[in-house]
Amino acid sequence: MLLTVISQFTNFFYYFDENNIYHRNTFYPLSVALGLLPGLITFTMLIQNRKKIAKNVFVSFLIYFTLPLTGVILTLFVYGFSWINIFLGLGALHLFYSSIKLMELEFYTGERKDSPISPIYKKAIVPTERKKRVERTHFWQTMSVSTAGIILILIIISITGISLPKRTLTIKEPYAENNFESSVCVTFLRNAEKHWVDDKDPDRTGAQYDGVIFNNMKSTVITDWYFSISLPQNCSVDPGPWNGTFTISDGRLHVRKPQDSDKENIHGVDFYTITPLKTLGFGCIMYTPHEYQPLSQNIFFTYSSVFKPLSNIFFSVFLALLFVIFIVSTTITLLEGKLIRVEEENVKLESTVKERTKELEDEKNRSESLLLNILPKEIAEELTTHPDSTIAKEYSNVTVLFTDIVGFTQLSGEMSAEELVTMLNRMFSMFDERAYREGIEKIKTIGDAYMAAAGLTPEHENDGAEKMVRFAQGLLEDVRLFNETSPVKLQIRLGINSGPLVAGVIGKTKFIYDIWGDTVNVASRMESTGTPMRIHVTEETRAQTANLFPYDENIEINVKGKGLMKTYFL
Fold first, then answer.
1. pLDDT score of 116
2. Nearest-5° angle of CA 87, CA 92, CA 94?
3. How does the average pLDDT of the chain come out, rounded?
4. Pairing of strands 492-506, 512-516
5. Nearest to 229 by CA among 207, 205, 256
6. From CA 350, how far away is CA 296, in angstroms rounded?
7. Environment class of 258 (CB within 10 Å of its CB; exposed 0-12, middle 13-18, buried 19+)
8. From CA 258, how far away is CA 238, in angstroms rounded?
9. Number of C-alpha atoms within 13 angstroms, CB side, residue 189?
10. CB neighbour class for 124 (10 Å; exposed up to 12, middle 13-18, buried from 19)
């Protein structure tokens, strides 16, 4: 910024002509290199931190920073077009679009609870010594990329050169010889030995006029030029001038560099360019009044030029210095990167060991969870501790529930196997979730029957009966909820009984936890003799819950193996 301000007063980077039009100047490449550095540094930092940001965010940032860098390179090839500004605009538009899409994704999917404006970075614990090494590597990476970018720019400039705009010199006191203090000097003299009186017009003198263009610039090639000098009336030019196309109009002699279409151009256009510290002569035979002297006339000289940096010793030294810095920084980056990769491999190996240990631990937890899904906690612990022992326990007061679907046999004949299993799975999953929430022990399912127990504790006094009745009420609610969205409307029967039973594990492979006893059989009879969508309980269960739930008058039913029994509907 400081050099840009200075350039406004010194034409260091650029200047404005008399028409207030911007033109590049000799040290324009320096402004390009300095302007390129922030983008290169930011680009390097983005690459260094690519693993810390999400892929879509990284791509958006990458486009945002690489487009202007591309614009810088194009600016060197095509002068007069705002490539950098255009690419900055395109990059900003893409970044804005990506941000909007990212916020839309977060808004509609709710994938993140944080503010969508704040990016999430992955955090990692890094040892202090390794952190310093990484920081050093990042510094040298930045140095390597920055110098590489500047070298690329300077090489492009060296190949193409810097096209400088036309400049016009107004020479009010023409030179008789080269003025080395001037970057471009032009002389136009009448040859003292070659002049004569015009035979056709005694008032005119014929003479050979010799002009020389001196290019005193050390690194600039004059690619096109135009010369003009004042003439009096009654002047003419003989055919056959050299190194220029000569015309007289509006009281002036006009000389321009030969073009491809000119007959006088016998050497090719490149022949008439003027390389640094070289000269080009041009001349003609011209007839003028006797008193005419070129050294007393105004001369206008307009020229275009191309700056060739490699011909400048300072540029060459600077480029060589950049190459040295690039080689050193790249070498250090590669060496440090190798050491970091070795350390990362060691850390990764340690992490792998920890992950494997954690996986084993997770697998153990999953196995235990699976066992708890099959067995009550106490039974699972005992089976784990004593895998070869026989597990059986007596409980004095357990409440058992049976439920099945009314008309299931007919339904199974009307539905496909997949539809039937899907329906049962959906409903029994609702039952399982409720059992888990309310502390009910699911025993098993047999076809369309669901069997559960509560109060599997050694104490005779427990709240198993109350919990089971509430669970049964919940099952009715689940069935009603199921029917709201199911094309097949279901009804269930529920039977509950309380009393002593035996529980244990049968088998060594594909073992199952089960309960046995008269209490279980009677509970099954309560279900089979019940009414759809009603809770049917025995007198034992009612006795434990009479003060908690309202019951209908008792009824007597004939229970197989038990005879007449008093039972109740909730």
1. 45
2. 95
3. 86
4. antiparallel
5. 256
6. 91
7. buried
8. 17
9. 13
10. exposed
- List the 204-215 sheet strands across, edge first: 184-197, 204-215, 279-289, 236-237
Please determine, for residue 117, whether its predicted confidence score (pLDDT) is greater than 70. no
Say what the pLDDT of residue 28 is. Answer: 77
Query: Highest mean pLDDT: which of 9-13, 315-319, 469-473?
Result: 469-473
- Concatenate the DSSP letters of all residues of 286-329 into one string: EEEETT--GGGS-EEEEEEEEE-GGGSHHHHHHHHHHHHHHHHH
Name which of 71-80, 267-276, 448-457 the model is least confident about.
Answer: 71-80
Q: What DSSP element (H or E) covers 22?
A: strand 22-24
Q: Is 487 in contact with 423 (CB distance < 8 Å)?
A: no
Position 228 pLDDT exceeds 90 = yes
For residue 92, CA distances in Å to 35, 54, 115, 147, 270 come to 18, 19, 21, 26, 44
- 201: helix, coil or strand? coil
pLDDT of the residue at 76: 76
- Helix (H/G/I), strand (E/B), else coil: 377: helix
Task: Report pTM.
Answer: 0.48
- What is d(CA 171, CA 67) in angstroms, rounded to the nearest whole number? 46
Q: Give the C-alpha separation, 465 to 330, whole Å.
A: 79
467 exposure class (CB count in 10 Å sphere: 0-12, 13-18, 19+): middle
Tell me the C-alpha distance between 485 and 456, whole Å.
35
Instruction: Check whether 189 has a pLDDT greater than 80.
Output: yes
Dump the DSSP string for 548-560. Answer: TS--PPPEEEEET
End-to-end CA distance of the chain: 89
HSE toward the beta carbon, residue 257, CA cutoff 13 A:
21
Instruction: Please give the pLDDT value at position 185.
Output: 96
**d(C-alpha 11, C-alpha 23), whole Å:** 10
**Residue-wise pLDDT tens digits, 83-97:** 888 888 888 888 888
Locate 448 and state its tokens: 């369309």
Strands 220-230 and 252-256 turn out to be: antiparallel
Tokens 């010369």, residue?
227
Task: Check whether 177 has a pLDDT greater than 90.
Answer: yes
Q: What is the 3-state secondary structure (H, E, C) of 143-200?
A: HHHHHHHHHHHHHHHHHHCEEEEEEEEEECCCECCCCCCCCEEEEEEEEEEEEEECCC
CA-to-CA dists, residue 59 to 39, 67, 93, 112, 525, angstroms: 16, 12, 14, 20, 69
Query: Could you tell me which residues are beta bridge partners of residue 558?
Result: 564
Q: Is the pLDDT of residue 115 over 50?
A: no
Burial classification of residue 152, based on how many CB atoms lie within 10 Å of its CB (0-12 exposed, 13-18 middle, 19 or more buried): middle
Helix (H) / strand (E) element for 539: namely helix 539-545
Question: Rounded to whole angstroms, what are the CA distances from 176 to 179, 293, 295?
Answer: 9, 12, 7
Report the distance separating Cα 308 and Cα 185, nearest Å: 20
* pLDDT exceeds cutoff 60 at 125: no
> 312 and 220 in contact (C-beta within 8 Å)?
no
